[in-house]
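ERR on first pass: missing label on line 2. Operator R.T. fixed the label and resubmitted. Corrected input:
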Amino acid sequence: MNFLSDNAAAACPEVIDALVAANVASPRAYDGDAWSARLDGVFGDWFGHACTVFPVSTGTAANALALAAMVPPWGAVVCHADAHIHVDECGAPEFYTGGAKLLLAAGPHGKLTPAGIDAALGGHRGDVHQVQPRVLSLTQATESGTVYTPAELAALGEHARAKGWRVHLDGARFANALVHLGCHPGDISWRAGVAALSLGTIKNGGLSAEAVVVFDEEIAADLRFRRKRAGQMPSKGRFQAAQLLAMIETGAWARNAAAANAGATRLAQAAPQRLLAPVEANELFVNLGPHGGAALRAQGFDFYDWGAAGSGEARLVVAWDTPPAQIDALAAALAALA
Amino acid sequence: MNFLSDNAAAACPEVIDALVAANVASPRAYDGDAWSARLDGVFGDWFGHACTVFPVSTGTAANALALAAMVPPWGAVVCHADAHIHVDECGAPEFYTGGAKLLLAAGPHGKLTPAGIDAALGGHRGDVHQVQPRVLSLTQATESGTVYTPAELAALGEHARAKGWRVHLDGARFANALVHLGCHPGDISWRAGVAALSLGTIKNGGLSAEAVVVFDEEIAADLRFRRKRAGQMPSKGRFQAAQLLAMIETGAWARNAAAANAGATRLAQAAPQRLLAPVEANELFVNLGPHGGAALRAQGFDFYDWGAAGSGEARLVVAWDTPPAQIDALAAALAALA
Amino acid sequence: MNFLSDNAAAACPEVIDALVAANVASPRAYDGDAWSARLDGVFGDWFGHACTVFPVSTGTAANALALAAMVPPWGAVVCHADAHIHVDECGAPEFYTGGAKLLLAAGPHGKLTPAGIDAALGGHRGDVHQVQPRVLSLTQATESGTVYTPAELAALGEHARAKGWRVHLDGARFANALVHLGCHPGDISWRAGVAALSLGTIKNGGLSAEAVVVFDEEIAADLRFRRKRAGQMPSKGRFQAAQLLAMIETGAWARNAAAANAGATRLAQAAPQRLLAPVEANELFVNLGPHGGAALRAQGFDFYDWGAAGSGEARLVVAWDTPPAQIDALAAALAALA
Amino acid sequence: MNFLSDNAAAACPEVIDALVAANVASPRAYDGDAWSARLDGVFGDWFGHACTVFPVSTGTAANALALAAMVPPWGAVVCHADAHIHVDECGAPEFYTGGAKLLLAAGPHGKLTPAGIDAALGGHRGDVHQVQPRVLSLTQATESGTVYTPAELAALGEHARAKGWRVHLDGARFANALVHLGCHPGDISWRAGVAALSLGTIKNGGLSAEAVVVFDEEIAADLRFRRKRAGQMPSKGRFQAAQLLAMIETGAWARNAAAANAGATRLAQAAPQRLLAPVEANELFVNLGPHGGAALRAQGFDFYDWGAAGSGEARLVVAWDTPPAQIDALAAALAALA
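pass 2 clean. output:
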């Protein structure tokens, strides 16, 4: 029973159907097809703001491309110390940006705050001997399974703008956050000052398409060339566009995220005393105690240890297609742990 | 009737079937699945040589990643002046390599020769004031629709090795070349000294997977990290691996290439006097005369002009799924041109 | 007798004196000293236009830094096929720019023309599959020892601006050009649309300081950080600033260039029939015939062969401090060649 | 009275004399002169080990070039959180390496220890999703004015080698460390496993030359081209070589460092209770209390605050040429602080 991650789940039927439907003979290549032509409009309507949509093949590419179009090589990206862009992308942001630095800030439960940012940069100078922060990169839902409220994001956006920084949002689990909040997509993107969003679909039931959604034309003009140059412009672009359209137009994004979130909530309710952070999306971070991990694995549950070796900490992730029976079984097993 | 390119054709049924079959719930992510695990073995058997296979999402990414793992930033890649890596990748090789140069050589019908390479580098010095050639990049089939024979490739490989260069092969249309030659895949890759091959499937009936096939462990060890860092390691890696396996294991590579090549040959036979280069794969480069292009377009044929404006030159490409009736129609129209 | 180059000549007394005068105890580091503080003003007065001056240690650094601040990584720099930035800088422009391409144009005697530029870019497209020209880089005096007139430069500048390109000038021998023309420094820089100038002093009698002179504040704001990041901001900045100031304020630039130019003219007059290009600065490109080079070397003259092996072509360079007796000797030897 | 830094002090007479002596007419350019030719031999004798010496114009260039030749772009450099390469070089290491990361470790008084390194990398994984440490960069003397003993360095070197890492030493104040230890230069370089050393002379009485000293031929072969490509190969290379030779051959390195160290020791003895770290080179880090800084400045002493605002912490640096009377005055003032 797989609670390792949501990133290898099946693709949902809506996406498979869309791929098959897009498998027509020889339209124009790259973004010259009818699916690609509809992207900006469909996403613009969904977000309630004009935008440019750049399909890419991975979340790492989405993040790195977006950042590269937002920060000069001598600049810096401020992010949480747990941010995926820092921890799990093999330096892709540094590669794509031409060597910009990530400056790490801390904050509880994966969330940054204006005060935490200021503290992290307390001694940072504006002279030429130091890289200069130009972008704030936030993750929604966070790497700790929590979700920024629109007000929290807006405050961070305002804080960034006051410093002349642009805001990037890593939305690998944007749908999960949106379902949790029940708000409008614009409330946690452009209305909060986000200029570019890495919008994930793969963890949300997609197959091979993520999107960079850009709300700023200057960034989009630059990103257009960087995407091709990065080898992220497939000749059969309709297959990416069709996946992205299907997620939005069929509402799969919401159904899939709701299912995953509900599963995580179900697990959280079974072991509230073990939670290391509020469960607001589809991930749980728990302390299983010294023997809990082994006990669960002995019952067939698969998941990642987290935190320091021997800490007893673990991460449990529910995907859109995790069988309810497996969720029930894990909930029971968690409740039964000594 | 679309003769623009083979790069937007439909995906073949074998690939669609493989994608659907790979759509199972939650195996291990990245390359931890059963499909990815079989890649090196299946391709190793096909090539008759141990290799490491890296799936990527575009041919540009395949080329740029391979080159980056083969050349230092202060090095140079020798290639044909018409090479895709120079002309159509928005500087991806320069980006991925950290700014290595492409040094351009000439040769008839898109083919390089040892003498042509030496001529191009005649005045090149080995001192620190100039970038140093370290890689020879060839294209098979070439950008002119011709095909290197195994003997030609072997001579080029030997020429490169004698200078201490590695050999890269851009095989966006490798299958078309292989079908034309009727030889073993190893004859135009590792046996000719090729260390890394960009093996295209997308123009050959694939959907979204190309491969870098590496015959040199040192290159593979480096490329492994560069691929992730480039955002070219999808979490649902099985969907790429399954496509690549399907192309080889079902023999689709050969059927599709044979169909495309045969169509091009059919067209060539209809207008032999118009050919600018031998037709050895699935592309024709023709001179349609001052009015021929317009005449064909008036009959509903779509294709790209080529060469200098007003030259009357054009490119006609046949895809694996170009309808035979359309090929017949174009053959007739070509034959009927004044 | 050394006619190899002007790039290893002695430093002139004005520069040595300035270095010694700047050797005071512990002013502020970097650019916090009194010498550095005067740079922008002194050069601004000289050029007749506000500018920002960035001292650097080599001409290669000057060129590469200037270009990096002017072109995006997916952009291109149009330059002459003989340009130093292409031929003799080991890919420094590609390194500093993050992999921008140099697009090569041709023109007689090392000079570009609007028509030559357009011809070179005839087939270049504006789509995302190709790098986009954003900078025109010219060399004054050229790599062939010729000099653009103010009118020629202005026409090129206008041609570039009409395309939305910025103009960079490699002025490794700017002083030689200026003395030849007898015009105002502004006439061959900002008045002709030059946004950034690599102003050489080292070939003109300097010791270790070149300057990037920037007439555009946006470029300067970016270059400031790139310079430090490149390791081109010495802590004892006054020693670079003092050299640059000395060259301008003492008039050494003009005296030294005049001496070198006069020597070259003297040689040119001795063998007018051998010239491959007009001699307008301090370099001669000559054809010495099949045995001329050996004959001169047998008499103790040292110089570089040029052009293709066996062509009989050679380059003769006069430095600011080449002894007049040696120039006389070479003039006589040239005249006496069969 | 300037205790800001040693990095803007005068150049010592030995260096000025060497520059003047090297100001001869037109030897061969770049490294073709007699001074450059002696570098490897003189430094090899001094270190007791064959080495390749690359003169550069700044310490930042020395560090960044050395690291670029030692780490792949997807690699990481482990260094102290206070390291100059992380804090004060505007991202030069990231630029030169093509985006490698710096991974920060902690340790008291600016020193790393094997245990501190292991703690910092406790959770670091070897998979492709994370950058891979390949270099350990240490600073000698450290950023806290302390000095690694040969045994400490050897233990760190052994620790690094056991992991397959190379060792880089930032020796901006190498001479100060060497004088403090009274050991052989080899004891704190190659004997401790250092493969490449940034050897500073500028803070030690030099004018404009630092050196990268490489004890590993593979690194040197790569660095040779990177140096030119970085714009760090001056045409009048003899002026850099002459400075480096003068520092070693006249013994100025030792005299100058001894003078600076002695001054710092004198100050330390005047206020031992204020020291934040042992004073082992020419820098003091002190806590001046809430009003001490202002009191000293009122008496005409200039220096940098250090640490957090309001902490009362300050840095006092003695240069080779700081007037003894000023040192006496500061010592008295320190002793007299409440």
